[in-house]
Every structure is written in structure tokens, then in C-alpha cells.
Amino acid sequence: MENKKPILIxxxxxxxxxxxxxxxxxxxERKWLTNNGEFHQEFEKKLADYLGVxxxxxxxxxxxxxxxxxxxxxxxxxxxxxxxxxxxxxxALHWNGIKPVFVDIDPVYGNIDPLKIEAAITPKTTAIMxxxxxxxxxxxxxxxxxxxxxxxxxxxxxxxxxxxxxxKNSILNFGDLSVLxxxxxxxxxxxxxxxxxxxxxxxxxRIDFLKNFGFAGETxxxxxxxxxxxxxxxxxxxxxxxxxxxxxIKKRKKIANAYYELLxxxxxxxCLGDMENVKHNYSYFPLFVDASKYxxxxxxxYFKLKDNGIHGRRYFYPLISEFPPYRGLPSxxxxxxxxxxxxxxxxxxxxxxxxLDREVIEEIVKIxxx
Length: 370
Ligand code: T4K
Prior knowledge:
alpha/beta, 17 strands, binds ligand T4K
């Protein structure tokens, strides 16, 4: 595949251009560009309906939404979290002056291991911040039970979990808050963007103050807020994306099924199957290379794919706990994070996006099987 265009891990789906031009004409006419405009209000409502949640507050990106979610609940001290995520999860804690406490992950799906949370709780712990990594739900019931027992808040980093349901209920309905990302590489994109999902009007109000400098009225500032607002162009773009999202997820499912079928029974290669009673969004397609059974290491396979024009990504390697800002923390010690270290050294996320051709999937699998 050397002379062909490289196949990247993600390819954003864009709305129909003519439809977007029509939305732009409306914006040009209205001359209302940001600060809770009409498209913004409509998008929040339609998104809440689509997701099956009570309240959505739009943000300019997922990272600012995470930072603001922690501010919303006045989280401080220590927060228990996972090292197996995109670095923004822990950065959001750092930007709030909170000490991250890393807990190991389950060895199969890579979500925080609830059985290890209790041992990490100290008098300074105020919250748990798990991630539904690759969109696969964390063990929300067990996490809720622990949070209830110890009086902790739960904020889910649900950046990968757009549209995911467990027993027909949105996964975003668990915990105190859930945070989404609508970055270009995500299942649902508004170019850049994100949201906080919450369950009551009072909390939504506070979130909305916080993302607009803390303004609660023309001359009233109730909190040291930030500017994290989504603009009208993105909100109108997001409204158009809602029209095709079901179709996009259907296409992703087809691709995941093709990978499952073609990658079956390769010694040393493990894929994540679907979870019971879960509606997945197929946002990522991770596979795990066990070098004691497969003829190559993960990195050898990763570079072999790359040499053949297939640009997978090692999400999430290195672990967040291995980056310089965090590696000195007591909870970053490798003996505390055994499963996370193994998985981070085995993972390659393969390309997955709605328009990925079956032919390309076959080509990718051929390279893996060779
Ligand atoms: N929490 C979690 C668990 C997250 O995964 C993320 C973001 C966040 C929080 C923070 O949310 P945001 O603040 O981003 O809303 C990418 C994304 O930038 C990032 O959003 C995402 N997670 C992370 C997992 O992946 P990079 O550094 O790997 O991106 P980049 O530029 O290398 O792009 C990845 C691939 O996509 C490349 O092969 C190129 C392709 N691509 C990218 C863009 C931007 C395109 O084809 N078109 C594009 O427009 O972080």
C-alpha cells in the first residue's frame, strides 16, 4: 500500500456542505455568533433528547468541560482516577490543583478496577473520576456503591461514550456528572467541542455560569468562571450531525464486526468483544498483542502497519502516570499499576470510521496475519 494515501486511525464525518451553508446564511443574517445563541439552545435540547439525558451544557472542548465539571462540584484534595486514558483526564485535575491518585484497571476492558478503589481512599479523597475507555462502560454500579459508602462524588470522563447505553439507559446518566468530547476524531464531532451532562436544573445553571466567566446576570459574577462556550457555527454544525449519527454508528458497527470476524483465532491477538446489554458506539477498535504468543512485539507490529500505510495509534501508551508531571506521584509506581502497564504495552487501535472500506480492513488483517 506504499503509494496509496495513508489510512489514518480516524476520519471525521462532516455534515452535508449545502445544509451547512444554509445554516451559515442564517447566522450571517442573525449576526449572533456565540453566547447562548439560538442554534446553541436548540442543539442542547436536541442533544439531551437524542442521548436520553436530562440536561446538556455545551462546551468549546472536552478538556474545558472536564475542568469545569470539577469546578461545578467544588472538588478538591485527592481524586481517584485511571492512568489508562488520554492525558486530558489527569490534566483537568492538575489544573484544579487536585492531586490525582491512580488506581489500576481491569485487565480485559481497561476501565478502572472498582475492587481497587477503596484501598486508595484517604481522608483527602473527594471524588472518583473514571473513564469509559473506548466507550465501554465502567462498572458504574460498583463505583456508585463505593461513592455512596464514602460520600464521594463521581465525574465520568465519557469523552468516548457518546450514545452508549447499558440496559437501554444512557451511560451518561450515571454518576454526578458526565463529560463528552466532540473533537474531530470522535464518533460525534463539532470540529472541537464537548459537553457536561447533569441531572438537575440547579447544577446546569451553575455549569452554565462557570463556562461564561461566572456571570449570573449582566453585573453579577457568582464564581471564578472561564470562557468555554461553544459558538453558533459549531452548534449549527452539531445539529446537522445529529441527523446522520445513527447511520454513522451503524456503519462503525459493521466495520467492528468485520474486524471481529477476520481477526478471530490469531494466536497472541486479542480484541474486545461487545459487552452484554450494552449498545456500543464503536468509537475505537483496540487490539492487544501478546508478544509471548504472537511472532512480534506490539511496537514491531505497529511500525509494520505504519510502513504499509496503516496509521493505527497506541492509545493509551504511555500511561498518564509515566509522563513527567505525574511520574513522581506515589500512586504512579509501576507495582501499583500492573494491569495498566501490561495493556498499555500491548495496545494498538486500528483505523475505524464510517467510510472505511471492507477492502482496507482485509488488507490490514492480512498484514497482521502475515
Ligand atoms: N478525555 C478523553 C478520554 C479523551 O480521549 C479526550 C480526547 C479528552 C478527554 C479531551 O477532549 P478534547 O479536549 O480533545 O475535546 C486525539 C484528539 O485530539 C483528542 O480529542 C482525543 N481525546 C485523543 C484520544 O485523540 P491526538 O493527539 O492523538 O490527535 P491527532 O491530531 O494525532 O489525530 C489523530 C488522528 O486523526 C490522526 O491520524 C489524524 C486524524 N485526524 C485528526 C484531525 C484533528 C483527521 O483525520 N482529521 C482531523 O481533523 O489526540
